[in-house]
Predict the structure.
Amino acid sequence: MLQFTGVEKSYGSKKVLAIPSLKLPSAIYWLQGPNGSGKTTLLRILAGILPFQGQIRLREISLRRDPVAYRRLTGWADAEPLYPDFLTGNDLIAFYSDIIRPPAGQLGDLIGRFGVSSWLGSKAVTWSAGMYKKISLLLAFLGRPALITLDEPLVTLDASGASALFDLVRERYHLDGTAFIFSSHQPGLEREMPGLRRLIIYDGSINLI
Amino acid sequence: MWFVINKTLVRSFYLQHAGFFLFLFIVFFGIVVPSQQVAYHYALIRGILEAPGFLLLVAIAWLLYAGKVVQFVFRVLDSPEGLFLCRMRCLAPATCYRLLLWVQHRMFLPVSGYAVIIAGVAIRRGAWAEAMAVLLFVAGICGVSAILYYRRLRYPGMVSEWGSRRLTGARGHRYVPYWSILLRFLATRNGWLLVGVKVFSCGLLYLLLRLQTPEDYDLRAVYFTWCMALFGHSILLLRCQRLEVGGLLFYRALPVSLAGRLGQYGLFCLLLLLPEMLVLGWMTPNPIRIIDVLELVVTGYSLLLLVNGCLLVIPLRVSDFLKLWLVLLGIWYGCVLGGSLIAMSGFFVAAAVILLVVGYYRVDLR
């Protein structure tokens, strides 16, 4: 499903990622590693935000050769999401929906699950960190992505939001075959998501456990 | 505390607006030879004191600058980096106000310094009332600005609805193209700069074109002004670029083709120049020919596209940005003197497209 070939990423002279060859079947992956090990860099590369050396293919679609088709297959939520503070949640959803064209009914379902309807009309400047997180997760799930990458999705999320997130991840994986790669320092995630596979990132390389 | 506040507000204000002050410096001191500077400014000040209309224009310009300062301070106070400034609320109200007044005074120094010189000339000419009016006006601006800062500290999170209400239109409107987000950003977060650039650009274009006569038709001075105005627009683009690597980073992860992105940026730059296009259109066919209007619009638009392209693919610091502008300025003047502006525009547009196609996905945004 996801294939890395000769993927490398450096910041200046410091090499932060080196993945000579790796094939990941569709699954829910828990990306683990110490601070500064390159988790966020990897997730941003997979989202198409950071440039890199090598080749990444998702369902045989190359990120480098066909960037638009690749991006159509991915959803991404940042660890500390940022949005222009003069935009409302409705503005952001409208902006994403114009581009992604989610299936009918999906938007209402996601809004209900994350419990964001009451403040979608307010501007981002008034939101708490948890509200930013919920909006970013909602936007990452829009459409029918084949891979959703979530950077620290549980940080600042309240209990109901975390529960909705776990339900959605399980549903999307079992019903649509959507793969997930998320980073988290929270312990005990296997209880919430049975079958979770671990990706350990250390010293620039990745190992699947 | 004084040291920290000075560094957070005053110093960062002057650093972030170095381009703006360079622009003002060129406008005030770059168009007259050094030996004529004193006579030129003395004549300018006499004009300000003797013509009420001119005095009013200067007062509006000062108000625009004050607005820019206030907007900057609000932005810092509202940002996570400026959160620690809320500790100032622990000070006694009078002390806190004095501190904020001092901040405003330091940031308003370019205006208040010039106002003191105007007042000095007025007193020398025996115009005591004008001198007092100028000084009181500037003192009033500083006093009111400090009150606004104080209120912001006391009641954090107050949001100005002004720009967004006007640009988002009716409630329930749910078409949000990318260019509209950039325009809303300029209107809501850089409103004073936007208004200042537009007043300068449209006002001077209008005045310079009014001076054109069929017997003495020469657009070189217009092109000089146009270039200065475009520099102001480039500062707006620089602000937008800062937003794009922060709050709009997600746009790079969305499935939008390069042609689609180029279209959004192209439309944004076009809309940014709309007021100038209206002024130029209004001035045709007399005193300016249609072909010259088209040339002005095309050159300006192509320059903005190129600057936008550079900002999208090369992470520029302010100093790099100014260097880029000096290079573009050199090309611009070479082409004005050589009469090859259309060729230059073609080159600028081609360069902008190539930059976006080649560099958009390669830029490293850490």
